[in-house]
Every structure is written in C-alpha cells, then in structure tokens.
Amino acid sequence: MVDLKVKVHDLEFKNPITLASGTCGFAREMADFFDPAIVGGFFLKGSTLKNRDGNEYPRMAETPSGMLNAVGLQNKGIDYFIENIYPEIKDYDTQLIINVNGSTVEDYIALTEKVNELDKIRGIELNISCPNVKEGGMAFGVSCPGAEMVTREVRKVYDKTLIVKLSPNVTDISEIARAVEGQGADAVSLVNTFLGMAIDAETRKPKLSTITGGLSGPAIKPIALRMVWQVANAVKIPVVGMGGIMNAADAIEFMLAGASVVQIGTAVFKDPTLPVQIIKELEDYMLHHKMQSVNDLIDCLQM
Amino acid sequence: MRKFKRMAKKFVADFVVVDNKPLNATNFLIKVKSNSVLPNILPGQFVNVEINDSKEIFLRRPFSVFEVDYNDNTISMIVKILGRGSKKLTEIEPGRNVSLVYPLGKSFTYPSSTDKVLLIGGGSGVAPMLFLAKESGLDKTQVDILLGARTKEDHIDVESYSKYANLHYATEDGSLGEKGFVTQHSVFINDLTKYDKIYACGPDGMMRAIAKVAKAAGVFCEVSLENLMACGFGVCLCCIEPTNKGNLCVCTDGPVFNINELKW
Fold first, then answer.
1. Which chain A residue lies closest to B233 (C-alpha atoms)?
2. How many domains does chain B have?
3. DSSP character for A58?
C-alpha cells in the first residue's frame, strides 16, 4: 500500500488530488459521478456575502487547449449556502474548503466570520484573484499592500486554515506570496486564471460579454508550473498548485515543483471522473517507482 | 468498503460508433453502443461527446438524444455540422471509440394520455421532437409534428415517424410542404388553443417566435435551448439563461424550459 496522505497546515488530505473552485460546484454536482470520499477534497464554488447574478451571456469561449471564462462569481450568497447546501454536503468524508470573495475588506471579514461557524469547513480559500469582477477581487491580489491588508484583516477573525489564492496576472507572483505569508496565511494556492481575450473574426465582435476573461486549461500549464516552482522557493508555507492539470503526470510535476496538494480544474469539464482516475494513476506511479509516501514527491525536483 | 450513499446518476464512458451515415448535406445520424446497460434516457436530455484527434477542439459537444435502444444499449443522435467540432465528429468511422458524458439535462414534460400536442422542430432540433413523439405513448391522432427548413434538401427523411404523428413541413422556398417559416404554417396559425401542449426545438429565432404566439394564446409551451456550455453538468455556470428565478444553467435546469420561466 502506498501512503497518499498529505498535510497543508492543519488540514489533512487523504490524497493530494482535489477539485478546483469554480469547476466542481458545491461538490454535490460531482457526487452524481463519483463518491466524494475518494478525492482529497473540494474547493467549493466562489461565494460572496450576497447573491450575485454574474456576468451576461456569453461567458465562455473555447481556445486552443483551453477556454476563457467570464462567469463573474455567480452564486446565491453565503447564507443560501449555509442554509441549503452545507447540510447536504457536510458529511462527505473529504476536505471541504470554501472559496470566499469580497469587493471590500468588510465583505471578506463578514463572510469569513459566517464560514468560521461551519464545523465541517476546516479551511477557506481567500480569493483575491478573480479576474472577472469589476469592483474588486483581483484588485486586492495584484499589489502587495492590497494582498497584505485583506490577509491581515481576515487572519484576525479566522483561526482555521487560511489559504490565499493568488493571481498570476502580476509581475512577480513570489512577491505577493511572501506578502501574504508575512500576514499569517497558512498556505497559498495558485494559479487563478490568466487574463485573456477572444475575438470572432467573422462578426468582428469579442466572444465574451465582458470582452476579457480568464484563461484556463492545459494551455496555461507550463506557466502555472513555473509560478508554483517560484513561489514554493520563495515561501515556507505549503503551496496548493493548479493550472491545466490533465493527468497524473501533470499532478506529479506540480508536486515536484513544490505543491503539497493539487487542484484539478478545467479538465473536470471534459471528464468529471478524471480526479478518480488521476488518484489511481498516482498510486501506480508510486508503486512503479517504489515510493512509500507521496510526500517524497513534494518539492523533490532533481536538479 | 467505501459507502457511496448516492449511486452514480451520470456517467462518463467510451461507446463504440456502430453507424455514421449522412441524412443530407449537413446532418448525420451517429449511433453509438455502450458495453454496459444504459440508464433511462428521456426526450430532451442530451449527451456531451468528446471530439477525438483534434488539437483545437478542447471541450465536448452536446447533442440531443434522438433514439435509445435498451436491448442493444445504443444511443443515436443527429449531428448537424455547425462548426469544427461537429464537423470532426461527423468524420468518425464505425468501430472507433467515442467518449460520452450522459445522461444530462432535464426532459420535456410528458403529455397526459388525453393531450393533443404540437411538436415543432427546426434544423437538428428535429431529433428530440421525434424522440418525444415516439415516447409520448399518444395515438397518432393526438400528435402533430411540424418541421421547418430552408429547402426540401435541408429536411431529413422522417417518413417512418408517420406512424406516431401527423407530419407537416414548411420550407422557405416552398419546395416541400407549405412555403414560409413554421410560424406561418397553417397548422400553427389556425388555432393553437386546440393543443394542450406545444414543444419546440430549433434555432433561437424560431423558438422565440413560437413562444410569443403560444404565450399570447395561453397554451403550455416548452422549448429546448442550446446555449454554449463547457461542462454540461452544472459546475461551470457558462450556459446560463436569464429566467424568473435568476440566471439558470441550461445544462442542468434545462435544456427544456417552460416559456413562462424565460425572459423572452
């Protein structure tokens, strides 16, 4: 038997394969396909204090080896989640981490305080990197003072695991990672989507209602991998890695680059059962390489 | 042993292509076979099909289910060439594997046994209409099917469905059935209130025109939408349609919607 258990701060994951926020709903959608207990965890859909309708249609454009989205954090608000969704998913035998978003620091604090009351949500992913909402989100994540401020204020009211999700749309992502580490973040997760654009040459119009959107999928993998490696070298806290993972080899690459846990995102749209398959392939890889613990992969790039 | 309290309801599996034949210049009938028993699949539901061997096609393509054979474990769909993805799919050879995510979406509301119904299809929207006609369990006298296309050549041969329904055709050039759009056809303009339920699937403009008249006549009407989607199972939130209940996912809250829910 191989040991797949990993830890991110206080959070224990039965394996390092988790699902990325915005690509796995509130986990129950995935339970239509597989037993949620199989995977390491779910980073639940980005939630806000109040209901958000999101951006107008069209919100998606397929691109070579990936896609752009401009969903804009559509969700029914945290109270709806607490009353209607949490009771249904709280007994899933896996880690549930909720992704939280605000347009002001007060929003982030109010949200965090509400989530803090939920026993089975043992961590939050503080999203300071959504590229698709005008009034905030990424505004905090693209400067060190912004990232520091929101991390510091949330840290004051939250004592469980605080993971800060970083934007790749910055000059130096390591700098932002160090900034949030300095304010008490327990881990960082990266990368969110890359700001991109698609135009229809025939109609001469943008393909997204918002003109620009976030690029994800295997198209971004080499850049995401480089950023994970840079950040892992810059901070002492654990790194949660993501960006275009399509198979176990991709997941292993992110772990070698320094990620303790990885998130499968856009690939789930193609194959919702992929995370289950990746766990199996990861076990096969470890057996083949005679490895006992998956921890022997983390930050173990051979130079 | 792990306990999975909720059995899988949706599946991802490889099917073998058992038939792929052109129905006309742009529509193909593709039949795929599973090696496991199929779940119940209803008219209006769809499958999300992976496009093999293409570097530029990243996402799956959704298609309405046209026929299901539970003895054979086969699903048929009508694939209309709309872009590179559907074009690529129509080139697949029998014997090849193709991956499906299924069954997805909600079905049409079944008519009650005494209902008189009108089913209107345009383009590849013909597929779920014919599926519904066959599955409705109604007598032929209770079912009118009205199919619209640009020309006779754009219509596919559906004469075998004349045992389930009365078939009516509209073409823009008058080469088959009545000349004009489906909304100008005598079946549609005569008296809609004689129908208990109207169902439509086809181009957006066609469905909106039908919805407007059906709404004014106060007749129950459901339409099947085709918004651009990434996942097909309610997590990407890309295929949203504004409704009375806010933005809903066409893939999981639809694709079938009652026209009274829509902001048309």
1. A29
2. 2
3. P
Q: Check whether residue B136 and residue B168 sit in a common domain.
A: yes
Given A24, A130, A144, A300, which residue is catalytic? A130
Domain of residue B193: give its range.
117-224
Interchain CB distance below 8 Å, B235 and A71: no
Q: How near does any CA of chain A get to the CA of B65, in Å?
A: 19
- Render pLDDT for A166-214 as a digit per residue (tens, 0 to 9): 999 999 999 999 999 999 999 999 999 999 999 999 999 999 999 999 9
> Please, what are the averages of pLDDT over each run of 10 residues along chain B (264 residues)?
61 97 95 96 97 88 97 96 93 97 97 97 92 95 96 93 96 96 95 96 96 97 97 98 97 97 95
CA atoms of A247 and B165, how far apart (whole Å)? 49
Q: Does B263 touch chain A (CB under 8 A)?
A: no
A294: left (phi over 0), alpha (psi -120 to 50) or beta: alpha
**B92 and B17 in a common domain:** yes
Residues linked to residue A62 through DSSP beta bridges, in sequence order:
A67
Q: Three-state DSSP class for B240?
A: strand
Contact A8, A187 (CB under 8 A): yes
Residue B121 CA neighbour count, 13 Å, CB half: 25
What is the distance in angstroms between the Cα of A235 and the nearest Cα belonging to chain B? 32
ipTM: 0.94
Q: Is residue B109 assigned to a domain? A: no
- Domain ranges, residue A14: 6-54+69-195+215-296
In the residue annotation, A130 being an active-site residue is answered as yes
